[in-house]
Write a structure and sequence with these properties.
Nucleotidyltransferase, domain 5; alpha/beta; single chain
Length: 262
């Protein structure tokens, strides 16, 4: 149900999907919230002097929520290797400046922030890898959602609310708020994006030693020209996703995930 459009210099659209059968208090009503914001908007996380990357965390703190987790994934698009998901609960009382969307950081800074986050005992974090065999069995969307569910289950303390990067996750098991582009809208999601990407990148660097010739350390399994050429020359290796079209064509199989909507 579309609730409305707020116009500043750029349109901002809000959607809310609610469960009609909820009989509990209004503020804990489970619903999926998808927000779109642009730079220069006079509403939403950019409004006022509040750190926009903590807007949603502070919003739920004010509602009485004690533990807000961010969850994000890395590696949906590659032809090889696992999909990674991380869940993070940041301690209240710190702005965690510098923790931003992993795609906006240089590799060395991602590595540094990974060590800072995982080395801080006040940060509750969990990282999960779902391997290629399971991706082929579940499909990439199902495998990504399963990785997110497992990452949340691995936290020391279970969250009261989960901020999800992207669209809602079916059967997540928690009250969730889905934010399109969430790694640029939430500090918790940004932290999760760093942990997921660094973990997967390290895994692919190790895979480059185990399966030389494909260039996994460079392209991390994504369908670059060099990767496609190596795939055609060497064939698929055990970590390739055989239901993805370029790999399936090399293996002589019918692709099940050739055209994915993400």
């Amino acid at each position: 149900m579309k609730l409305g459009v707020t116009r500043s210099r750029t349109p901002v659209v809000h959607w809310r999907f609610v469960r009609a059968d909820w009989a509990g208090p209004e503020w804990v009503r489970p619903f999926f919230l998808i927000e779109g914001y642009s730079k220069g908007d006079a509403v939403g996380p950019q409004a006022g002097g509040e750190d926009r990357l903590l807007h949603w965390e502070r919003h739920f703190y004010r509602l009485g929520v004690q533990r807000v987790a961010g969850v994000d994934e890395a590696g949906r698009g590659p032809l090889a290797g696992p999909v990674a998901a991380a869940a993070v609960i940041l301690p209240r009382g710190s702005d965690w400046a510098g923790v931003i969307d992993s795609k906006q950081l240089r590799e060395a800074e991602r590595e540094r922030l990974y060590e800072v986050l995982t080395g801080d005992p006040a940060v509750d974090w969990s990282i999960v890898l779902v391997q290629a065999e399971e991706i082929d069995r579940l499909n990439i969307l199902g495998a990504t959602h399963e990785a997110m569910r497992r990452a949340l289950a691995g936290l020391r303390v279970q969250p009261d609310c989960v901020l999800v990067d992207g669209l809602p996750v079916r059967d997540l098991g928690y009250r969730q708020h889905a934010l399109v582009g969430g790694d640029a809208l939430s500090r918790s999601i940004a932290a999760a994006s760093i942990l997921a990407k660094v973990t997967r990148d390290r895994w692919m660097q190790d895979a480059d030693l185990r399966f030389p010739g494909y260039g996994f350390a460079r392209h991390k399994g994504y369908p670059t020209k060099a990767h496609l050429q190596a795939l055609a020359h060497l064939g698929a290796c055990p970590i390739h996703r055989r239901t993805f079209r370029p790999v399936a064509e090399v293996c002589g199989d019918r692709p099940d995930q050739g055209e994915l909507g993400f």
